[in-house]
Design brief:
This protein has 412 residues and is mostly helical. 73% of the residues lie in helices and 4% in strands. It contains 16 helices and four strands. A hairpin with a 6-residue loop joins β3 and β4. The longest helix is centred in the first third of the chain and has 34 residues. The radius of gyration is 23 Å and the shape is globular. The structure holds zinc ion. The site of zinc ion has 4 residues, from α9 and α13. It is an enzyme of class 3 (hydrolase). Its main location: endoplasmic reticulum. Keywords: Endoplasmic reticulum, Hydrolase, Membrane, Metal-binding, Metalloprotease, Protease, Transmembrane, Transmembrane helix, Zinc.
Length: 412
């Protein structure tokens, strides 16, 4: 077997196996009663429901992962890439259009394959536990909007990458890096005003006790906010959330209407203080710097591997091309992506502890953050006792119990 093919199939199968193993271990890692810290937030019925939700989510993700992995391996072994390439070349399009058609067809196929699973997750799985509020109309419109955005934003970026690798010689990876970084900064900059409002309505938070408390908290933390907005999260789910968007002075905080409905003023202030903690502790800049470094490394490695004849032989390709090399490199990168995402999750979990500590100190009220976490856990039926392998693989936030224990240290 071709060495590249062995690495690719091996790592696809390996990452599938790790995922399924974490689901099996996770399903057995649930004690009959909630941890004592949650005794006041989870009654017996809620706790039983949270265990059932976690188990059903694990089953669903095992089925989805299995289908995805089987589909991609079957496509590779059946010579799907070469068949697609031959069919698109037969259209006799200009070189750039041929490359875009190849990548576009694969992207479309992958999203069509994922569609039934997304629909099932939204309308059957989430509905069964009372979370889903998405209408069929919103679901369909969301997909269409995403598709249009992918084409008009992703299309030109891919086109530039293809052109650079085709014509710019050994410096191509540097040009791709520069363009990709500028593109992602630009996207972050325009997201709050141009992209996010396509999916949600942002309403400035009305004047009142909550707004004044949030403004006081930001001022005391020495943090400039360009706006406090309420986002209609209830259009899709009953689960609450909050996040910052934008860069520099365009930074704004978005609070889900579902969060405002269920949390008290002091709890929402604690959530804001936590988000400010991420900015004040430099997490946002660190994340940005890591993203920039990673993008550079990916393009550099891509430039080394993407035209290797062995890589094309692995997929049974008759002809070498930049566009197929790009796709094959992404597959070859699977094991490295897995390692990078585990590392990124570990860093993110460390950041969450730091932001919690910042919120506890800034508000002088760790109890508010603790009760916010408890309410959020109960209303979204969070798995209170995830298996360490699940946390290691998938958790960008520490389990709520660990956060509450760390916060409790500030109370005494
Ligand atoms: Zn956070």
């Amino acid at each position: 077997m071709n060495a590249y093919l062995a690495v690719i199939i091996g790592s696809l199968a390996g990452s599938w196996l790790l995922g399924v193993l974490s689901n099996i271990l996770g399903a057995r890692h649930m004690p009959p009663n909630p941890p004592p810290e949650f005794a006041d937030a989870f009654d017996a019925q809620t706790y039983a429901k949270s265990r059932e939700y976690a188990r059903a989510s694990m089953r669903l993700s095992a089925v989805t992962d299995t289908c995805d992995t089987l589909a991609i391996i079957a496509f590779i072994l059946a010579g799907g890439f070469d068949r697609l390439d031959t069919a698109i070349r037969a259209l006799d399009l200009p070189p750039l259009a041929t490359g875009l058609a190849f990548i576009g067809a694969l992207t479309l196929a992958a999203s069509l394959l994922g569609l039934p699973f997304e629909a099932y997750r939204t309308f059957v799985h989430e509905s069964r536990f009372g979370f889903n509020t998405t209408t069929v109309r919103t679901f369909v419109l969301d997909r269409l909007k995403s598709l249009v955005l992918t084409v008009i934003l992703g299309g030109p970026l891919i086109a530039l990458v293809l052109l650079f690798f085709e014509h710019a010689g050994p410096l191509a990876w540097l040009l791709c890096w520069a363009v990709a970084v500028l593109f992602s900064l630009g996207l972050t900059y325009i997201a709050p005003t141009w992209i996010l409002p396509i999916f949600n309505t942002f309403t400035p938070l009305e004047d009142g006790e909550l707004r004044r408390a949030l403004e006081t908290c930001a001022r005391q933390a020495g943090f400039e906010l360009s706006g406090i907005f309420v986002i209609d999260g209830s259009r899709r789910s009953t689960k609450g959330n909050a996040y910052f968007t934008g860069l520099g002075r365009r930074r704004r905080i978005a609070l889900y209407d579902t969060l405002i409905k269920e949390q008290s003023v002091e709890e929402i202030v604690a959530v804001l203080a936590h988000e400010i903690g991420h900015a004040r502790k430099g997490h946002i800049k660190q994340r940005l710097a890591m993203g920039v470094a990673q993008t550079g490394a990916v393009f550099f490695l891509m430039s080394l591997f993407m035209s290797s004849p062995g890589l094309f032989a692995a997929f049974g390709m008759e002809r070498i091309s930049v566009y197929a090399g790009l796709v094959f490199f992404v597959l070859l990168f699977t094991p490295v992506s897995l390692v990078l995402s585990v590392a990124a999750n570990a860093i993110s979990r460390a950041h969450e502890y730091e932001a919690d500590a910042f919120a506890a100190r800034a508000t002088g009220n760790p109890g508010a953050m603790i009760s916010a976490l408890k309410k959020l856990s109960a209303s979204s039926l969070t798995n209170l006792t995830p298996h360490p392998l699940e946390v290691w693989l998938h958790y960008g936030h520490p389990p709520a119990l660990d956060r509450i224990r760390a916060l409790s240290a500030f109370s005494s």
